[in-house]
Amino acid sequence: MRDTDDIGSNPTDNPALSDLIAARFSRRAALGGGLAAATVGFLGGGVLTAAAAEAGSAGSDRDKGKPHQLLGFAEVPTSTADTVVVPEGYTYDVLIPWGTPLLSSGPAWKKDGSNTAAEQAQQVGMHHDGMHFFPQGGGWDGPRRGLLVVNHEYIDQVLLNPDGATPMTAEKVAKALAAHGVTVIQIRLENGKWSPVDSRYNRRITGATPVAFSGPVSLKHPELTSNNPPLGTLNNCAHGVTPWGTYLACEENWNGYFGTDDASWTPTVLESRYGVTRAGFGYNWHKADARFDLAVNRKELNRFGWVVEIDPFNPRSTPVKRTALGRIKHEGATVTEHNGRVVVYTGDDENREYLYKFVGTSSWKRLLSQGKSPLDHGTLYVAQFNGDGSGTWLPVVWGSGPLTTAGGWADQADVLIRARQAADALGATKLDRPEWVAVHPHTKDVFVTLTNGSAGPTPVNPRATNIYGHILRFRETGHDNTATTFSWDIFAFAGDPAYQPEGQFVPETQPLFGSPDGLWVDPDGRLWIETDISNSSQNLASRKYDRIGNNALLAADPSTGEIRRFLTGPRGCEITGLITTPDQETMFVNIQHPGEATTAWGSPTVDNPRAVSNWPEFDPTGRPRAATVVIRKIDGGKIGT
Ligand code: FEO
Ligand code: CA
Ligand code: CA
Predict the structure, then answer these.
(1) How many A from CA of 451 to the centre of ligand 2?
(2) Around Cβ 3, how many Cβ atoms within 10 Å?
(3) Atom of ligand 1 minimally distant from the CA of 349
(4) For residue 234, which of 253, 215, 248 has the smallest C-alpha distance?
(5) Looking at residues 217-233, what average pLDDT do you find?
(6) Which atom number of ligand 1 is nearest to the Cα of residue 347?
(7) Strand 563-568 vs strand 574-580: parallel, antiparallel, or unpaired?
(8) Which entry of 133, 324, 550, 619 is 20 to 30 Å from 332 by CA?
């Protein structure tokens, strides 16, 4: 996502994680372990146990007796080419690029960007992001047919319309809204190729789809009063999948869509805390649609910043905003469970923001049997990281700590609407932009990407300005993800060891990568890492990113720390959205915003939308299109082995 995440809206004095890491590093170094030991040390014995568990549970019969080897592919080099590169022995295909009609009878994509808003609403959206594959049919058919559900995080208005973003019109706002949201589309594997199916499940949820609210914050809450019915979801970044088979789309940088030309409008403290400004991110929708005009429809923006539950198997279902998970800039909503209780991890991706988790009150099956949503009944927590490697989950609950009437908090709805400020008051720990969260299926360890940030510089910060990012690892006490305490360390630092001092934490043998963002642990325990280096840094020596190349997908072995680069993307893109079929023989990966304006390669224009990239079609009169890529082994077999 765009660089606006870097700016930050957190004015508090809560400690930043960089301070705490620095404290731990200097302590370990003083003890003689050195930095390398500090990086790999903290879960030592437990990880060896986990590795043994992985070797036992991940291997098939034919693997028995062979040494444990999670990563079996030949690493690909860094790339600056305008293409996708996969390892030798692998192949890739392009599936459902932006503008693909949901049904074969639907409106065809027009390569000059001239599809109407109504047509875009019947086509796959732009800028694919978080994604899940829901298999359909049991047994042999499960890996061959299913629903692919894809978030469309944001849009590029220069590429979306034949004449770009100017002038802004009601039709352009409508098309932009239609290009956002979520796609549900059935796909099938036939003769080695995945294709969309004309299915009753195929649907779009957009920025204009009717939605409902549930949980402690009612749509009747005065802070949610608006001139229009509740419509749509925006900036759906990463996602989650519930054990009951629904999809969670998360609303991240929703603040950027709102603006006003009314010079008398000034933000409240609450609005400033969420980065709301008169100019927004420059979309200018407010010029053509009063829904997005802060001076006309001020509370509309409070209807965004939520986690949205979607039932892909019921095409007529209404998406529901689950308010118990709080109102922040949700990167994702990673779901796991312990003894039937649901646990949802969610990062607030902005510089100096926090990591949250939601824990259900009782088993999700019991709650569902009582007609209750497991996402409406639980406790929201925010993470506090202690300098000794321990951590505490602080309840973001009205009546707890400072969150009282005397402290200025009316009720739980008030706490959830102002979740960032509640977390400030609790003393949560600032992070360098928490992005995706992944839970290891065997160890239940939790990995979190901190993509980059500038919570520093601080005197003891090991990376005073964190331009490359790193990956945190947690172990909840007792391997119980509902626990309120945990231990933590750093799994890996991204970066380029050629640059000091940032490089001092990066092993020379580690593949170059930067700005880790997407994360997923596959059923065998491979940790997949997707990068989102900003286009203002990518491929630039001035930003210490010249050797790292285009964005990439890497795989790591959590038990050994080994990392290998698996895929590199075309120019201007980020790599995101990642899932395999249950047999792990097909991997789906999203190529988001190929051809976006970059400092290194230039900017697309109305006259030349191909200035940066023309992936995937390389049509001399076409334009770049975000798409899902489908990765398979040429000779079959599990991806990554
Ligand atoms: Fe949408 Fe934080 O990336
Ligand atoms: Ca990112
Ligand atoms: Ca992201």
Answers:
(1) 7
(2) 10
(3) 2
(4) 253
(5) 97
(6) 2
(7) unpaired
(8) 550
Enter the pTM of the model.
0.93
212/117 Cα distance (integer angstroms)? 23
| Amino acid sitting at position 586 | T
**Euclidean distance between CA atoms 520 and 335, whole angstroms:** 12
| pLDDT for res 195 | 98
Q: How far apart are CA 239 and CA 347, in angstroms?
A: 11
Residue 304 half-sphere exposure, CB side, CA atoms within 13 Å? 28
How much distance in Å is there from the Cα of 332 to the middle of ligand 1? 8
pLDDT tens-place string over residues 264-292: 999 999 999 999 999 999 999 999 999 99
Structure tokens at 213: 């609210």
Q: Which atom of ligand 1 is nearest to the CA of 235?
A: 1
| Distance from Cα 29 to the centre of ligand 2, integer Å | 31
* Gap from CA of 532 to ligand 2 centroid (Å): 5
Among the bound ligands, the one closest to the CA of 347: 1
> Which helix H or strand E contains 514, and what residues bound it?
none
- Can you tell me the distance from the alpha carbon of 357 to that of 395, in angstroms, rounded to the nearest whole number? 9
| Coil vs helix vs strand at 292 | helix
CA dist., res. 538 & res. 536, Å (int): 6
Residue 461 has pLDDT above 70, yes or no: no
Ligand nearest to the CA of 519: 3
Query: What's the confidence (pLDDT) of residue 128?
Result: 98
> What ligand 1 atom has the least distance to the C-alpha of 451?
2
For residue 452, give the ligand nearest its CA.
2
Q: Which residues line ligand 1 (CB under 6 A)?
A: 1, 5, 153, 237, 252, 331, 349, 435, 517
Based on its alpha-carbon atoms, the radius of gyration of the chain, rounded to whole angstroms, reads 23
For residues 181 and 209, the answer to whether their CB atoms sit within 8 Å is yes
* Ligand that lies nearest to the alpha carbon of residue 515, given by its number in the listed order: 2
pLDDT band for 20, please (50, 70, 90 cuts). low
Burial of 72 (0-12, 13-18, 19+ CB in 10 A): middle
DSSP letter for 637, please. -
Chain centroid, CA 285 distance in Å: 24
Count other Cβ atoms within 10 Å, centred on residue 501: 10
How far, in Å, from the CA of 640 to the mean position of ligand 2? 24
Question: Rounded to the nearest 5°, which phi and psi values hold at 488?
Answer: -145, 155
What tens digit of pLDDT does each residue of 422-452 get? Answer: 999 999 999 999 999 999 999 999 999 999 9
Per-residue DSSP letter, 31: T
End-to-end CA distance of the chain: give it in Å, rounded: 30
CA of 237 to the centre of ligand 3 (A): 6
**Burial degree of 530 (CB within 10 A; 0-12, 13-18, 19+):** buried
Atom of ligand 1 nearest to the CA of 253: 1
Q: Whose CA is nearest to atom 3 of ligand 1?
A: 1
Please give the pLDDT value at position 17.
Answer: 59
Mean pLDDT across the stretch 121-138?
Answer: 96
